[in-house]
């Protein structure tokens, strides 16, 4: 059996995403970037949203095609990103992706690139019904007027909230 | 568009106190709270997102800082089953709140939320162009020099004035008489003025600069003072004439000289309209004026912090009738 022409991407990487800031929510896994010329690249990524809303995907590629992300190759632009994390999240982003002109200093050999997304959808297979939606509000400070009981991944919280009617 | 009424509660994130101190110190942005909305049949995704975005505008005015949502978790009990991350335009936290978020102001905050979200769909001005709110909030961000921020306030009032005039809610328009009626008179007015200037010995090239058609057309533009007063009337905001005059001079100096009135005004102007004691006090006056206009546009009456008091008494509150 002959060796594959393109080696497979590693299952995970630990890229210096904190160079872009302190992550609010982060993901790690493998995925694909698609381009407006119809081509695609496999990558291993770290992705995160930062408190100022930025969504950054920092990728490690097994070939050098990714250098075009910096305008070094043809003028293709990314049109989509999909990925899967080890925790079972499926990540998708279609349209409005754009390359960045900044890359942290990398100490492990490989080809790297980063892009920013306008929106990123993260879901996992489940039969559980949605019970509530929680929107993360930037810069809103308040003192609550009513008692609120909230189930969080770390346990149930009994706190005070500001009612919206 | 379907039903955009939402019910729920805003809850602080787990480390909100720490993060709040952080954004004040670093002049940065953080998710400080989550809006929790129970799943409701009949409100689809777009309507829900629209309602939350509207609420964010009202919360922004209340706190004097841009409040936007950047992620949405769909929960099932205590488990996240879906997340949407959104790269919104986020601004650094500003502490210039007319309604502060502390314990003493919680009732005022609750009252504002009630009136504020509704105003976005009922106020003709806010329906015409809600980006007037962004212009006003942007002047409160503390990254620029004080003059530059005050200049942004002047820009915000121009934008608000323009939106107000275009919204058609007032009989005060952009022009004193319809432009179509005034335009045919312009050439005759120019012809009438020029001999007066020439007879006074003013060189022809300068006469042409003074009595140009563009300048004469400007005679028909409604005065800023009249529009500002009409805007205050529309918002049911009572402002003493002295404040209106001071606001106009502050705005004029910022727009035309890039200076505060208290720095650039003449002795004669100061005698007629006393300036603020310092640039900071003048800035606080401008903030106070716009705060009151926006609070009233959002339908609020009640206690608020008037930034004119900031240099002297930071604990005082006033009541907006």
> What is the end-to-end distance of chain A?
66 Å
- Share of helix of chain A, binned: under 10%
| Alpha-beta content class of chain A | mainly beta
Biggest sheet layout of chain B = 2 strands, antiparallel
Mean pLDDT of chain B: 93
Contiguous low-pLDDT stretches of chain A (5 residues minimum) are 1-5
Shape field of chain A: elongated
Topology, number of strands of chain A: 11
Low-confidence stretches of chain B: none
Helix-strand pattern of chain A: EEEEEEEEEEE
- Helicity range of the residues of chain B? 40-55%
Task: Bin the strand percentage of chain A.
Answer: over 45%
Strand order of the largest sheet of chain A: 6-7-3-2-1-4-5-8
Largest interface: A-B, 52 and 69 residues
Q: What is the global morphology of chain B? A: elongated
Describe the protein.
The complex is a heterodimer of chains A (165) and B (321). Helix content of chain A is 0%, strand content 48%. Chain A is mostly beta strands. In chain A, β1 and β2 form a beta hairpin. The radius of gyration of chain A is 19 Å and the shape is elongated. Chain B has two domains: 196 residues, no CATH class; 37 residues. The two termini of chain B are 35 Å apart. Chains A and B meet through β8, β9, β10 and β11 of A and β1, α1, β2, α2 and β3 of B. β8 of chain A pairs antiparallel with β4 of chain B.
């Amino acid at each position: 059996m002959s060796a594959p022409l393109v080696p497979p991407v590693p299952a995970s990487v630990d890229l210096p995403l904190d160079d872009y800031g302190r992550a609010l929510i982060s993901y790690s896994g493998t995925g694909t970037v698609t381009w407006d010329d119809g081509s695609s690249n496999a990558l291993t990524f770290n992705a995160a949203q930062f408190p100022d809303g930025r969504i950054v995907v920092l990728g490690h590629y097994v070939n050098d095609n990714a250098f075009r992300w910096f305008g070094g190759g043809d003028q293709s632009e990314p049109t989509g990103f999909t990925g899967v994390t080890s925790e079972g999240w499926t990540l998708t982003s279609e349209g409005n992706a754009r390359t960045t002109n900044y890359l942290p200093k990398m100490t492990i050999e490989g080809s790297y690139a980063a892009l920013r997304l306008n929106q990123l959808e993260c879901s996992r297979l489940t039969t559980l019904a949605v019970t509530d939606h929680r929107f993360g509000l930037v810069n809103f400070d308040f003192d609550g007027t009513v008692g609120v009981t909230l189930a969080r991944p770390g346990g149930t919280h009994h706190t005070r909230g500001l009612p919206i009617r | 568009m379907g039903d955009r009424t939402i019910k729920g509660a805003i809850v602080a994130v787990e480390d909100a106190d720490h993060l709040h101190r952080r954004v004040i110190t670093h002049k940065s942005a953080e998710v400080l709270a989550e809006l929790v909305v129970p799943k409701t049949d009949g409100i689809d995704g777009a309507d829900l997102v629209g309602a939350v975005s509207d609420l964010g505008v009202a919360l922004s005015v209340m706190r004097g800082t841009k409040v936007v949502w950047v992620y949405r978790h769909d929960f099932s009990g205590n488990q996240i089953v879906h997340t949407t991350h959104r790269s919104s335009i986020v601004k650094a936290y500003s502490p210039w709140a007319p309604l502060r978020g502390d314990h003493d102001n919680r009732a005022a905050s609750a009252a504002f939320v009630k009136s504020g979200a509704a105003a976005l769909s009922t106020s003709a001005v806010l329906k015409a162009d809600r980006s007037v709110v962004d212009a006003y909030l942007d002047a409160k961000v503390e990254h620029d020099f004080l003059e530059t921020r005050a200049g942004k306030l002047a820009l915000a009032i121009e934008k608000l004035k323009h939106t107000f005039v275009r919204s058609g809610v007032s009989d005060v328009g952009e022009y004193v008489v319809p432009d179509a009626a005034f335009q045919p008179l312009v050439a005759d007015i120019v012809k009438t003025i020029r001999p007066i200037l020439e007879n006074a010995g003013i060189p022809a090239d300068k006469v042409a600069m003074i009595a140009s058609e563009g300048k004469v057309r400007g005679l028909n533009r409604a005065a800023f003072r009249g529009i500002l007063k009409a805007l205050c009337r529309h918002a049911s905001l009572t402002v003493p004439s002295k404040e209106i005059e001071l606001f106009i001079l502050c705005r004029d100096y910022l727009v035309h000289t890039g200076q505060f009135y208290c720095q650039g005004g003449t002795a004669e102007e100061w005698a007629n309209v006393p300036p603020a004691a310092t640039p900071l006090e003048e800035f606080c006056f401008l903030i106070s004026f716009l705060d009151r206009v926006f609070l009233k546009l959002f339908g609020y009456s009640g206690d608020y912090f008037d930034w004119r008091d900031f240099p002297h008494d930071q604990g005082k509150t006033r009541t907006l009738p």
